[in-house]
Amino acid sequence: MNFAVKTIIIMGSLMPLDYYAGRSTTMKVKSIIVGPIKSNCYIVYDEKSSDAIVIDPGDEAGKIMREIDEDHLKVHYIVCTHGHFDHIGAVAEVKKETGAKVAINKKDIEIYKHAGELAASWGLHIVEPPEPDLLVEDGDEIVVGSLQFKVFITPGHSPGGICLYGQGVLFTGDTIFAGSVGRTDLYGGDMEELKKSFVRLISFPSDTEILPGHGSSSTIKEEKATNFFVRRISI
Ligand SMILES: [Zn+2]
């Protein structure tokens, strides 16, 4: 296992971008629904430079690779929002095909390494995930071409769940969904932590677009108005 890094700089020009400036015109996102639990895998790339990251390749590596190859994308990082099998099941194959580095928070390493066991308990099978290359922490940056993303540690659904924020878009994994939040009854789940993470996320600018780990997209404004968990955070 490798060391944690504070700042990740990868190929492409490093242009100053305001995280809060709204969605970049050069950022493209491909959303792919994968696997029996219908996880959202996101391929996020700078359309000018073709530099890309893949967020949560949960299953169906072939489907993900077809999308990557279609646009001749250069994938530098595979970012795991957390270690559950339905988000990491295709990490091994996508890493093998692209040579990308795998990033995850250290508090989800145990879950990541034992993801196959959780999958088996659901009657499913995944390819054993490789050793992560990078352990990301709160405040770390991932730079892809002209795109910049900031890492937010948002425990609750799992101990080391992360969200990625950049160009006005928040990739929330299983922390927040449209109208809902991630379950806390799996190993390492914690309702009090989830409440804190939820409060942190809904303090983002209201026009922030949310791209969650399952289900449809949303906005912070929409979640403040409709998410049932808003009522739970004061309890
Ligand atoms: Zn999960």
Describe what you observe in this structure.
With 235 residues, this protein is an alpha/beta fold. The chain has one domain: Ribonuclease Z/Hydroxyacylglutathione hydrolase-like (Metallo-beta-lactamase, Chain A), CATH 3.60.15.10. 24% of the residues lie in helices and 31% in strands. It is built from eight helices and 14 strands. It has helices at 61-70, 85-88, 91-98, 109-113, 115-121, 191-202, 220-226, 229-232; strands at 4-8, 27-34, 39-46, 51-55, 74-79, 101-104, 134-144, 147-153, 162-166, 169-173, 176-177, 180-181, 209-212, 218-219. Strands 1, 2, 3, 4, 5, 6, 7, 8, 9, 10, 13 and 14 form a twelve-stranded mixed sheet that branches. It has a two-stranded antiparallel sheet with strand order 11-12. Strand 7 (134-144) and strand 8 form a beta hairpin. Helix 1 (61-70) packs parallel to helix 3 (91-98). The longest helix has 12 residues, at 191-202. The chain is globular and about 45 Å long. Residues 1-23 have low confidence and may be disordered. Zinc ion is lined by residues 82, 84, 157, 174, 182. Zinc ion (ZN) binds at residues 82, 84, 157, 174, 182.
Provide the succession of SSEs.
EEEEHEHHEHHEEEEEEHEEHH
The CATH C-level name is: Alpha Beta
Bound ions, cofactors and other small molecules, one mention each: zinc ion
* CATH fold name: Metallo-beta-lactamase, Chain A
Terminal Cα span? 40 Å
**Sequence stretches where pLDDT stays below 50 over 5 or more residues:** 1-23
- Mean pLDDT across every amino acid position: 90
What proportion of the residues form beta strands (DSSP E)? 25-35%
Biggest sheet features = 12 strands, mixed
Overall number of domains: 1
- Going by helix content, strand content and strand pairing, the class is alpha/beta
